[in-house]
Amino acid sequence: MGPGRRATVFGASGFVGRYVVRRLAQEGWIVRACMRDPVAGAFLKTMGAVGQIAPMRVNLADSDAALANAVQGADAVINLVGILAQSGAQTFQALQADGPARLAKAAAAAGATSFVQISALGADADSKSEYARSKAAGEAGVRAAFPAATILRPSIVIGAEDGFFNRFAQMAAWSPALPLIGGGHTKFQPVYVADVAEAVVRSLDFAGAKGQTFEAVGPSVYSFRELMEFLLATIGKHRGLVPIAWPIAELQGTLMGMLPIKLLTRDQVELLKHDNIGTGAPGLEALCIRPAAMEAVAPVYLAAYRKGGRFGDRAKA
Prior knowledge:
By secondary structure, this protein is α/β, with parallel strands linked by helices. The chain has a domain at 6-158 and 189-219 and 277-291: NAD(P)-binding Rossmann-like Domain (Rossmann fold). 39% of the residues lie in helices and 16% in strands. The strands form 4 sheets. It has a 7-stranded parallel sheet, sandwiched between helices. Strands 7-10 form a two-stranded parallel sheet. Helix 4 (130-145) links the parallel strand 5 (114-118) and strand 6 (150-154). The radius of gyration is 19 Å and the shape is globular. The model is unreliable at 310-317 (pLDDT under 50).
């Protein structure tokens, strides 16, 4: 479609958000980039022409009036907001259950023609995990308010700024061992962040994506142990891998979940009890995307750790 269309993106300065904003800008979209801290997200402006990307201070938990203002005049609305742990007003209920439905309702009222919701592969209304239940509730709310919405369910999303490989690589820099929660048997299907962003943008103009749900997964399945072995081999570190039984992991999650910085919570442990892989539903291929292999993309950004540095050090170089 032609350039000049307007998109409102919530969670624009996050990991996936910055890739989505860049791709939208490349396609000629005028982007309203919504986030909690526009100052910290000012870097997004450099991803497009002057005036093409406008950071805006608005939170998914803000008032209905604030959401309506954010989507006014938008042809497309994209929700990328998600949290792995709750803190203060940033709750699963507000941001992942109620927020998406409220935003979809505002988008429909504003006359938007497309709505994309980033959910999660483990979304399940019957899950014991509050995270998974809230993601399922968010999907249901979006469907009710905006039936033509496209929902994407990614597995672990990897890329230069990811919170998965980077976190464990940093841990390997000082720890003699890495933990294998539940023995490391849980399976994942890592997907490259650029592929997820591409799926978001393509779904805006693909009639076959309207009202559909797609699983955003990579081409291969790995156990958690295999992912840690790959990480250590890639960064050239020799570290032990220590299995942590589920009861011990649950106790650790309960205690660590009380800390200001939540490296692990009881709810996350519950999530790890279930494989996070595709179910056979339509995937990225249905959007004409050939997902990149983990082995092709991860070594590029993990190279800094092989030299004894951190991603942040490389990013500033």
